[in-house]
């Protein structure tokens, strides 16, 4: 197994262990503040009849809520078999199995076989991926109209939290590591691909941003 495969395998196992907790947390406490911000920004950008792509979809609560709010279909991609098993079960329980499609794998590696979408979502995914430029480029290439994401703020508190988490994972022998990528570079890369920012919000630790493809650059067919 090469280094990338080992990291992906460890990442999948790490998040699979959290699948039950995430499901319970969402049922008890509802959506996180950043997720509510994402839904608000996506609705403002236009949701009705949209095809969704959620990269790093986890248990799928976010895209299922957007389906109930007016989106047409959703494709979820995740490394974690446990997360996707929960997502499929929840979609079935909510009568959304015919409107959802799930793909397991590293999105960057399987992007060629993932369908394009009107709206692409990366909720706390950029911080899980070392090659953030490639992740953004390939997910932006799949986006017809709206690109929505959350990623960490570059603050002392966030840097300390990420260092502490990395230390704990190292002690457990886990290859998965979180990352703090430069916010200005993230924005510049998205803008450079022909998108305009139309929504932004903050929490203590996170940026939430929604971008719309600039019509003057030509819409994707």
Compact summary:
This protein is α/β, with parallel strands linked by helices and 221 residues long.
State the helical fraction.
40-55%
What is the top-level CATH class? Answer: Alpha Beta
Rg over CA atoms, rounded to whole Å, is: 17 Å
Strand tally: 7
Subunit arrangement of the protein: single chain
CATH superfamily: Vaccinia Virus protein VP39
Q: Which CATH architecture would you pick?
A: 3-Layer(aba) Sandwich
Span of the ends, CA to CA:
39 Å
In the residues, how many domains can be counted? 1
Low-confidence stretches: 1-15
- Briefly note the structural class of the backbone: alpha/beta
Largest sheet: 7 strands, mixed
Task: Write the element-wise H/E pattern from the N-terminal end onward.
Answer: HHHEHEHEHEHEHHEE
What is the name of the CATH topology? Rossmann fold
Please provide a written account of the structure.
By secondary structure, this protein is of the alpha/beta class. It is 45% helix and 22% strand. It has 9 helices and 7 strands; from the N terminus they run αααβαβαβαβαβααββ. The chain has helices at 3-16, 19-29, 33-45, 61-68, 81-93, 107-110, 132-141, 156-171, 183-192, and strands at 51-55, 73-78, 100-104, 117-123, 143-152, 195-202, 206-213. It is globular. It starts with a helix and ends in an 8-residue tail after the last strand. Mean pLDDT is 86; it is low at 1-15.
